[in-house]
Write a structure and sequence with these properties.
This protein is mainly β and about 240 residues long. Helix content is about 5%, strand content about 35%. The strands form 5 sheets. Strands 5-4-7-8-9 form a 5-stranded antiparallel β-sheet, with no helix packed on it.
């Protein structure tokens, strides 16, 4: 990944001005794709607007004023992705990274008690030495569990920064989900059924309104009702 990228080529999910400047900082490689994250300095400047320049963002980070998922982050290119929690204790402010109804990143302010947990989707499961089961999550985390009670696609509500599992939300009928990729990114729907393909084609999820999308695009956000505070709908 290059050090910087042209703003005109920045991912559509980035709500940054395209023509004011030529370049924008590119995030460090990590668990998220380029489309699925933003560098922390850009988040502070363009989303939160708590700083005016990249230099000011770098200074704020070096003074250890910003936490992501409960840990102090000083790297300006640190990739911030879906469901990550940004905290600024000096301002007593906490935010969760989500997608708005247009599929663009947005930070939703949350209360301090809600900043103590996040939602993580299980991407896959592997067995490690000793025969223990490891859950590999969408944000790069790995959690060891004793019993095989979770499925790929399930979403875990975990405590920060301990990673203790608080609750699980399964991809079953009636649960609420956010589409995180594709033409409907940022939209919220109610799951109707999961369609398992016998071929190499990806499994599908059908929603109550009849829409279909591939399973990998779906992120369950609650049992019957959303567990998270949702962003306000923006005008088109």
């Amino acid at each position: 990944m290059t050090q910087d990228l042209k703003r005109l080529n920045a991912p559509k999910s980035w709500p940054v001005p395209r023509k004011n400047h030529v370049w924008v900082t590119s995030p460090n490689p990590g668990p998220h794709s380029l489309e699925g994250c933003m560098p922390l300095s850009v988040v502070l400047r363009d989303l939160l607007k708590v700083v005016d320049t990249a230099a000011e963002a770098k200074k704020a980070l070096s003074s250890k004023q910003v936490l992501v998922d409960g840990k102090v982050i000083t790297e300006e290119k640190f990739p911030v992705g879906l469901m990550d929690v940004i905290s600024m204790p000096v301002l007593n402010k906490h935010y969760r990274m989500l997608l708005d109804s247009r599929g663009k990143f947005i930070l939703v302010e949350v209360a301090e008690e809600r900043a103590r947990w996040k939602l993580c989707r299980i991407e896959n499961k592997t067995y490690v030495s000793g025969g223990r089961l490891q859950l590999n999550l969408h944000d790069g985390r790995n959690i060891l569990v004793e019993d095989d009670v979770y499925k790929t696609g399930d979403v875990l509500k975990i405590e920060l920064p301990t990673q203790k599992i608080i609750e699980a939300f399964k991809m079953v009928q009636g649960n609420v989900a956010m589409v995180v990729s594709g033409s409907s990114a940022g939209q919220i729907f109610v799951v109707d059924e999961q369609i398992e393909e016998r071929s190499s084609s990806p499994n599908l999820i059908r929603f109550k309104n009849g829409k279909l999308t591939v399973k990998d695009n779906v992120f369950v956000i609650g049992n019957k009702t959303p567990e998270i505070v949702l962003p306000e709908v923006r005008a088109a």
